[in-house]
Amino acid sequence: MGTPLVQRILQPGEIEGLDHNAIARLLLPQPTSLFTARALRLRELAQGNIKGIPVDAGMQGYLVLMAALADAQAAVVAKLAPGTVPVADADALRRAVQHRMPVLPVSGARPPVWRDIFRDLLGELAATAATQPALSAGLTQVLAQLRALDNVALDACADAVLDENGDNLNPMHAPFVAAALQILWSSSASGLRAARVPDLETGALCPVCGSHPVASVIRIGGQSQGYRYLHCGICESEWHMVRVKCSTCEQNGKIAYQGLDASDAAPFDPVTARDDKLANKANDPKKVARAETCDDCHTYRKVFNQEHDYNVEPLADDLASLMLDLLVGEAGYRRASGNPLLWLGKGEDQQA
């Protein structure tokens, strides 16, 4: 009879030192299916069908509009001819590895094709407005304003979106510009090989494009089982970060989960953090959407758990869970980064 196996709980430093081949370090986007799935999720959220994410009636119409935008993104992606979107060349990959920098940085010049993508997106939305009376009134007006933007104004809006500078943005224009940028970067990112994308000096930024994450997501299945990933709001990539770190300041001593039910909030315990994978604790609506707060930097970022809702979609779920933002904000925490599909405009301290 062989020696019995004893499972040993890994400490935080040991978790970080695991062979990256054993954990899916980077999950690259699949834009051909991503935007369609997002549109479906947004409509489910708008209809109040997601138990763990209650949606206020005032938000339902906006979620339906963003679902139409995601449908338009999917249509544009489906029509992109091969080679339309530039990919990272060998020199770019070599520089990224040498300097531990993003392979497809959002800083710097954008390929001019992004403006064509933007105009194609407006065309798809115009077709939607013509067939959906509930959307046509407000959407037609915004589309007219967006079409009137010249290249200088359009690029300035794109710069502000990528810089996350809400003070210099029209909050009604920004989501549509952000949607075109998502198409551009996700299409480019989908052509990468994850193994060739280097880690950055910080784990708080996307290794593909350098943007901030929108939210965290606990994934299930294969090498991703039970691990936390940060979801990029621009290139839609996801990268692994251990569940004992603040995704803003990367400290691990004062993390807690805050839920819509105050009694569900509890300090983060690295020993028991992953035991919600157990079968008898699955599908708990209270754990679909929670805010991970840090008392070192006093920020928070939401985490969505696929173990409790298989169809979680980080960007859509983040957009719909404004109630959680309000509750955590009232508790004294500020949001770490915004959602590219919602901008509150000038005078607001944070994006929802």
From TrEMBL:
Q: Any idea where the FdhE C-terminal domain is?
A: 244-342
**Keyword Cytoplasm, does the record have it?**
yes
A Gene Ontology annotation in the biological process aspect, one of them, is:
protein maturation
Q: Where is the FdhE N-terminal domain?
A: 23-197
Give the UniProt family note.
Belongs to the FdhE family.
This molecule's function is given as: Necessary for formate dehydrogenase activity.
Record-given protein name: Protein FdhE homolog
Organism annotation: Janthinobacterium psychrotolerans
Query: rRNA-binding: is it a keyword of this entry?
Result: no
Primary gene name: fdhE
PANTHER family found in the cross-reference section: PROTEIN FDHE
